[in-house]
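Q: Could you fold this chain for me?
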Amino acid sequence: MRSSSLPHAPRRCALGVFLLTFLTFATGTVRAEEGWKTLFDGQSLQGWRNYGTNVVTGKGWVVEQGVLKKLAKVRGGDLITERQFDDFVFEWEWRIPAGANNGIKYFVRERGASAIGHEYQMADNAAMSKPQWLTATFYDVLPTTTNATPRIGEWNQSRLVVRGNHVEHWLNGVLALEYECGSSAVKSAVAQSKFKNEPQFAEKVRGHILLTDHQDECWFRNLRVKEGQ
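A: Sure. Below is the predicted structure, expressed as structure tokens.
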């Protein structure tokens, strides 16, 4: 009886390895091994500061139950990462009420009173009057090229990819927009936008990631980045 049961042991071992591997992927613990770094720990604003300062004032931005909340009609200043990024993938989840908007800026350099950078727009599309202002657009420059509609009042998952001059905007698993920094198409679109007088705005630069200080309420969670992708 003992000898007849031995051939089954390797199968049980293989099954155990398979289940362990599956659970690792299912629970997301593999992300740390793949180089993902958390940008919001759910408890503090460590790793962030207000634009143009070395601190966070605390006004306008609060952490509640693991979520970063932008208070409505309370100025808190734009929040930027302490670090700068070149090639990267940035993922985050966000939620806004009806009629609201916010945005994620990237390629941000501290060169002036206000933060300038490319912006991934987050908005209630029904409240926007231009196609370049809808969710997942390159704000005021390029509209989305696929139908990407946010879930207002619910959590949305966004993804920003920067590889060389190539940029991608994703919304809830849909590739909403892709463009090439410095291309004639981007330069032409910038020339028709509010950023037409910003030097080299169409170009890629190494810079900070920024959460904009809009007057509307907005919630963020699960902010993470992977560099060199």
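A (continued): The first strand starts at residue 37 and ends at 38.
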